[in-house]
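Session log. Operator J.P. requested a structure for one protein chain; no other inputs attached. Running the standard single-chain path with token output.
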Amino acid sequence: MDQDSNRKGAPRADERPRVRLESDEIARGPWVFGRQVELSGPPVAGGELVEVYDRSDRFLGHALCNEASDIRLRWLARGRKTDLDRPREFLERLLRNADRLRRKTLRLHERTNTYRVAHAEGDDLPGLIVDRLNDVLVCEHHALGFWRLRDDVEAALRAIYPECAVVHRIPASARRSEGYSDRDLALADASSGRETVIEENGVRYPVAAGAGHKTGWFCDQRDNRATVASFCAGRDVLDLCCNAGGFALNAAKAGARSVRAVDLDEVVLERAHAAAQLNQLRIDFTHADAFDVLRAVSSSTTRPNVLVVDPHKIIATKNDYEAGLYKYGDLNTLAFKAVREGGLVATFSCSGLLQEPAFFGMLFQSARRAGREVRLLSVLQAGPDHPQRPDFARSRYLKGALLAVD
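Structure written below.
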């Protein structure tokens, strides 16, 4: 990959910029916001690795600093000044810790070739996500600082996974909030899109690593797909917002009587159709809006026994919250109306700003609006390769519920 102005890596320890906080109170969690940082002092280059001091000029730790972002600092280490003397070795140590959890503790590689290697804040790498998609590692850069350190990240990953290629992706949300340059975006786009075939729960999927939605695959729903599929044998299944067909293909493989998969994105539907053919599974794919399909199903005599609602992130920012919560409510109200009596609804939200109590409150209110009685059978969440921080609620971004509907 070509060199560019943002790929200078970390400066020597004696050259690092210093950033001072507005108070002596150490901020909780992996982020420090702009309002908590003192404005005086020389400007810091976007994504720079800095030393952080409190208002009394006591050293606190090291962080990635971006003055263009409201998330001004992302903590990498707290305590010793020598922690980041060798950034590449430091990053490799964190990534090896993350790998040990996945391969030695969870033993994910024994049952799938696709899982999350590093879960950003959950693995003390705030702003960096790494997914393994068979023989490709996809680095998703939510922080400009990790993009600047991508040579070190890539070298560390190659040391741990020498059999894998490494590609880089910059998500649309970070493009706006982190101040990436056009050259950065072009380099990331040129890196992504490597074709491979993944296997999950015994089902194979052709994916373009680093292209499309997220890293190219939603690893977080692996266990939930298996859970829902276990109830699908002999039943009619409707998978809404199906993306590349994860829930639909698992249901069909589990012996569902019929499976209909719906999405408004034609590109992901083509991927899902290719996966169905690869696995010789029969699925009815429909290019349509989920709201329109649910309204039609509600007035039909043939309703599904199992209904999956897995929309995109509807609440992306605080300004979206009220309208997004209302949209979630409308979607789930229609879902409860559409499912057959005695059926199941598996419904999800991947909006980090929507906390679990508000999510369940919305679901029970939607059930009342639909005139249906519901019972919560299981609380669903991301798999264990997406570890959560107790002091960072957004790390529990994926929320789900399996509900019996009467």
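Operator note: The CA atoms of residues 169 and 189 lie 7 Å apart.
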